[in-house]
Amino acid sequence: AAPHERWAFHQGEFVRAGDIRLGVGTQGLHYGTGVFEGIRAYAAAEGGDSLLFKAREHYERLHASCRLLRLDLPFGPAELVEVTRELILRNRLLGDVYVRPVVYKQALEPGTPFGVRLSGVSTAVSIVTLPMGDYGKAGGIRCGVSSWRRVPDASLPARGKITGAYANNALAVEEATAAGYDDAIMLNQRGTVAEASTANVFVVGSGSVSTPGPDSDILPGLTRAAVIRLLADQAELTVVERTVQRSELHLADEVFLTGTGCQIVPVTEIDGRPVGDGTPGPVTTLVREAYQRAARGADPVHRHWNTPVGFP
Ligand code: PMP
Question: Does the 3-131 domain belong in CATH 3.30.40.10?
């Protein structure tokens, strides 16, 4: 179906996406007072069904983001997983799918003028789905370190997935693409590595794997958490969560990004310098393969990450 004819979940009901009407006064639109998630479902390796990846964890993180902005989300994580399954089934999206739930401040009490605040504003929730395959970046991407710093937790909670915060990420992407790069790597206010525009960063060097820790102003990615587990289980590698300095990017043997959208992407060039020998390295390749197996239900150790959509 065309995007506007697809089913969406809006304010507790299944409706056609094209029938949703949002007021121009929607508070989240003016002040960025919303939160969201990006979730994927994958065609199962054994065929016949799709599997949501870490769906419950995504909806738990959505709830945490809601708490930060005092958004009242009236559906629990388990209910939202059920809604998502039904949405994918209604849309007959058997195969690789992207799910985008968004929860946002809607309106003050009637008659109250616009106000920059969190309390006393009603909450709206919408979920849409779209088919989405691989980004196709297996050969690696080129990144530039951004002159825009990642928002610090002292200004806007970096650990929440807050809509307004993405103006910061968009500035970084704009700068990077204008300079001919594929994506930006952002530093935090301390000048150490935070993350890419919509993905976490892993650095492989001298036999160890590191990633910026939770105090580096990162969004604690669920793909990041999965990769830490997969490397422990499948390669007996312990990922060190620590401060990562910019120059480590230039000296690394391998750098890769992790995120629901991009999945696992090798970074083969940073600031115009090749990463390692300039081609995807063995740890990156191992992680890419392990992730695909886990996401498609072919890894018996991590079946609890998969929720079958339930195609008949
Ligand atoms: N950082 C940012 C800023 C992101 O937008 C994302 C994508 N949600 C990530 C990291 C990766 O998080 P996840 O693996 O949970 O998708």
Answer: no
